[in-house]
Amino acid sequence: MTTLISDLFTRFPYASFESKGNEYSLTVPPEKLYETASILKKNELVSFDFLCDIIGMDYGDSLGLIYRLNASAYPAYTLALKTSTGERENPRIDSVIDLWDSADLYEREAHDFLGIVFTGNPDMRRLFLRQDWKGYPLRKDYDASPEANPIPLENEKIEDMETLPVIDLNSDRKIEPEKLFEAGEYVVNFGPQHPATHGVLHLRVALDGEIITKIDPNFGYIHRGIEKMCEAYTYPQMLHLTDRMDYVSGPINRHGLCLAIEKGLELEVPERAQYIRTIIDELSRIASHLLGWGCMAMDMGSITAFVYGMRDREKIMDIIEETCGGRLMANYNVIGGVMADIHPDFQKKVKDFIPYMRKMLKEHHLLFTGNPIARGRMDGVGYLSKEKAISLGATGPTGRASGWRNDIRKIEPYAAYGKVAFDEMLREDGMTFDRYIIRLDEIKESLHIIEQLIDTIPEGAYAAKTKAIIRVPEGEYFSRVENARGEFGVYINSRGDKYPYRVKFRSPSMTLVNTLKAIAVGTKVADLIMLGGSLDYVVPCIDR
Amino acid sequence: MFQFSVVNQWIDEFLRTYLSEGWTLLVEFVLVALLVLTAYAVLALLLIYIERKICAFFQCRIGPNRVGPFGILQSVADMIKILLKEIIRINKVDPFLFRLACFLVIIASLCTFGALPFDGGLHAIDFNIGVFYLLAVSSLGVVGILLAGWSSNNKYTMIGAMRSGAQLISYELSCGLSLLSIVILSGTMQLSQIVEQQSDLWFIFKGHVPAFIAFVIYLIAGHAETNRGPFDLPEAESELTAGYHTEYSGIQFGFFYLAEYLNMFIIAAIAATMFLGGWMPLHIPGWDRINEIMDYIPPVIWFFGKTFFCVFMALWVRWAFPRLRIDQLLALEWKILLPIGLINILLMTLLVIL
């Protein structure tokens, strides 16, 4: 792989190249970006076919972009393609939307927060903020005063939301703003308040009778600006925000952030803490999958299944509550370990839970998996091919249901995952049923992981000693963990201060909404809701 | 075997001793109407309580348990609440049709309810075209649902109403066909005679296989007509928030709610009357001792017992199955139930002729 990459990099004489372990980085001038990206994607040596994230940066004097690329054939290696432009008034970068489908939302996000215009991307609306927002919040010279953006007293006009702004490449040519929906189309709003959008997601859906012809997701209804808040928080304070992103698998997110900070501090985490973290992660993964399973069943009209899922999830919540103090917001991981030692009953309760959950899984299969109506509904709907899944960046169970090996626990075993034997659940067909069943299979596998660890938790400290004020050395730190929904990535840029310079979270849910857009067109209204359930996205994770 | 006709005659004679012919009839009409309305309301409360309790047992919960012993007064409290609730005025609706719709739904359901034979004498009106009347009046409700969806001026309600129209009209066919096979077997459409004919054996046993098939088809199609269970597409709450009654509030919504529960009861009651002998106790030819014992149980209890058995089946399906999609729903009717129903009628006719 190393030789392949060095061979590949000889094709970019204009680029500067660095490597650290399995992380490579390539810096190119902005006008060469598209050319480089295109070669990286299309070359015959090693095709970087998975665009994991686009991180927008304000370096102070210039605006930068970091494209995090992966090759699905060599998932352990990551490549950061960097570029920056000194132009702050009217920054323009070529869009890579025709190379990777996932670039669509990422570019809109970078445009929204940093004001970078991507030429070639037809949809340069703001993603999270209102269309009439002034300024770009993640720029360091952003005016956050209430006078600049007074609290609006009127709703955002629906026409503004669906009008694509015109980017005047030649200012002498006048172009009419383009509407997303035509006047005669029957457009229905699913959300922001709707029982089946799993939060406050707003889907504008054009219907032809019952058949969906167009979907336009609108985000930002619960955007809290976590990335901006992080820039003003110290590292231990930042941790609390991650539980509030993907709130159904909060401890895993927090684990990811802790890993990034620990990487920066070069902190050795005690063995005991590693084991505890792994067990808590797997417990919350089971809880999350149970909720996802129940919600999908409820989206298909089976409320009893939802209650069954919640009933078993309750047992996990009780275990987590006893040890962590919180239920939904566990607040358990801290830099260097965990907040407190496990409760004396923890091991016993977890050991009781494992056979209970195995028994209940059979009941879940009996109630829903074998049901002819449920099978009939899932049959033949929502096909997602492996190539499309990679291009869309649909990580996690969704990608694995299409046959894409993307389990970070296997690729880059963090915490105690290297010490346990478990299988990466993989299915080939990429249908709705695969995405459904893979979650129940992963519950089984998570139980297997916990079973191996629970009796062998080593003695010792549950957290490493850290300084009172944590300063992460200057540099860039990436970490990634396997969230219940996919790859959760953390990027920290530190300038040696006690506050981070820039923090970016890679949300697995955002690409899943894009996946919904790709697979739901042509299906019926009932299928749209079911497919949403099968992708199992959590909106607060998108609206960070 | 005690029958209510004794009580009826006694009241009639009592009134006639004091009042003239016309006044007697008027008083009797008012009494019957009051009785039917009260029974309608009380049954609705009872059904809501039963559904909530049974659903809770299916879902490992306790269900209502705070208001009164075992929560039996919960639905009374809910009724008082819904009566006191504000009726929200919606902008840009068609006010006349919007208000009319909920009445149409409940009137259709009440008219059907009034014609049910609860007992030998507890039968408000006994047409010679009883079955025909039940089918005709119960399908009026779809007009109310369509109007509700149309007049609300809301896209969700519109989709809900369209689904409902397609669904009810389709399943009406299977309902009619399965009842028709019993009409062929009994040779009459008068409900009292249909029940009387089952005094030796219920039609579901008398009619052999065709009657059983008709019973199953009727349960499925009837269940679909109540917009519940796997057939709740018109109000699919995870897709269309509340379907055709999204915009309704207060007692206007209450009317839809009442009608939904009573329709479930009505379908179950028709199934009980047509297939399971209505208020007629279980009589098996030749087993005279058992038949005598069965006669000790009052017919009203037989009627409600059978009806609630069918209601329980409906609830069971409702809380165990996920929802169908619209194309699957229509395929089930037009490709499966309807052909089977047609063949079944042929079988039944052959059975009667031979």
Descriptive account of the structure:
- The complex is a heterodimer of chains A (about 550) and B (about 350).
- The model of chain A has no long low-confidence stretch (mean pLDDT about 85).
- Chain A has about 550 residues and is an alpha+beta fold.
- Chain A has 2 domains: about 1-160, Beta Polymerase, domain 2, CATH 3.30.460; about 225-540, Cytochrome-c3 Hydrogenase, chain B.
- In chain A, helix 7 packs antiparallel against helix 8 (about 270-300), helix 9 runs antiparallel to helix 10 (about 345-370) and helix 16 (about 510-520) packs antiparallel against helix 17 (about 525-535).
- Chain A has helices at about 1-10, 35-40, 105-115, 160, 225-230, 235-245, 250-265, 270-300, 305-325, 345-370, 370-380, 385-390, 395-400, 410, 430-455, 510-520, 525-535, 540, and strands at about 15-20, 25, 50-60, 65-70, 75-85, 90-95, 115-120, 165, 180, 185-190, 200-210, 210-220, 335, 335-340, 475-480, 485-495, 500-505.
- By secondary structure, chain B is mostly helical.
- Chain B has 15 helices and no strands.
- The longest helix of chain B has about 40 residues, at about 20-60.
- Chain B is globular and about 65 Å long.
- The two termini of chain B are about 35 Å apart.
- Chains A and B meet through helix 8, helix 9, helix 11 and helix 17 of A and helix 7, helix 11 and helix 15 of B.
What percentage of amino acids of chain B are in beta strands?
A: under 5%
The mean pLDDT of chain B is 84
| pLDDT < 50 stretches of chain A | none
Quick one: CATH class of the largest domain in chain A? Mainly Alpha
Mean pLDDT of chain A equals 85
Strand-residue proportion of chain A: 15-25%
Number of strands of chain B: 0
The biggest sheet of chain A amounts to:
5 strands, mixed
Rounded to an integer in angstroms, the radius of gyration calculated over CA atoms of chain A is 23 Å
How are the strands of the largest sheet of chain A arranged? 1-2-5-4-3
- What structural class do you assign from the helix and strand content of chain A? alpha+beta
| Gyration radius of chain B, in Å | 21 Å
Task: Name the pair of protein chains with the most residues at their interface, and give those residue counts.
Answer: A-B, 31 and 26 residues
Helix content of chain B: over 70%
CATH fold title of the largest domain in chain A:
Cytochrome-c3 Hydrogenase, chain B
How many DSSP helices of chain B?
Answer: 15
**N- and C-termini, Cα separation of chain A:** 35 Å
According to CATH, the homologous superfamily of the largest domain in chain A is Cytochrome-c3 Hydrogenase, chain B
Main sheet summary of chain B: none
